[in-house]
Design a protein that fits this description.
two-stranded antiparallel sheet; mainly alpha; 240 residues; Four Helix Bundle (Hemerythrin (Met), subunit A); 8 helices
Amino acid sequence: MSDIFTEDFLSSLPESPALALRDMFVRFDKRYNSHLIGHDTMSAEQSLEAYHFAKAFILEYGLPVSLVEDMFGFEEGALVADYVFDWFKANSSIVYDLALKQLSEDVEVRANDTAARFFARRRGELMVYEFSDSSFSRIQELLNELRTEVTSNVHLQEDHRRRLISRLEKLQRELHKKTSDVDRVWGLVGEAGVVLGKLGNDAKPIVDRIRELADVVWKAVATAEKLELGTPFQLPGPKD
């Protein structure tokens, strides 16, 4: 893989193809400009790898972005990196428009969901769970620590790593100090079981943090539901 679109960069891409492609364009633009002012270098091979990966991504998801049949059909004497940059630049407005449309749709979905929950709460149909300042702060710390552990765990397969990162991003974006939906937390608990089954003891740093996260959330749920807390929410640990 090109050192422009590195594995770490690709694993951090948003789940939405439009937003992911936008991030690729932004990444290439920054790298090219860094190359122009002498802070970095960009070889013909690196720029072509970046183009062909973007091309494969566009074709895979059927994105309406024009492609070049022959990337070597540039003006004689022009640098390959410059020619590739011209392609990125020519299509950037299309890509950014796609990303803006996707963001607008996402905002609309979230707003409609928030409104539906608000009205349901007013009708007394929905339970609200509230975290203390310290609990909510710890939840954010755990989510950040989880992201670090998932990103750095060399035993995770790349597709599984992306799935976990996507789950964490959505949870961090949607979980608030007062919330009526903790389903994503329980989904993450299920992922902990999958990671544990695949990695065994190598999953311990990830599983330990998910276990603590679930325990913090469970206490808020139990308090709201007026349940006796009893023992903390438990996840199985790896076998010795």
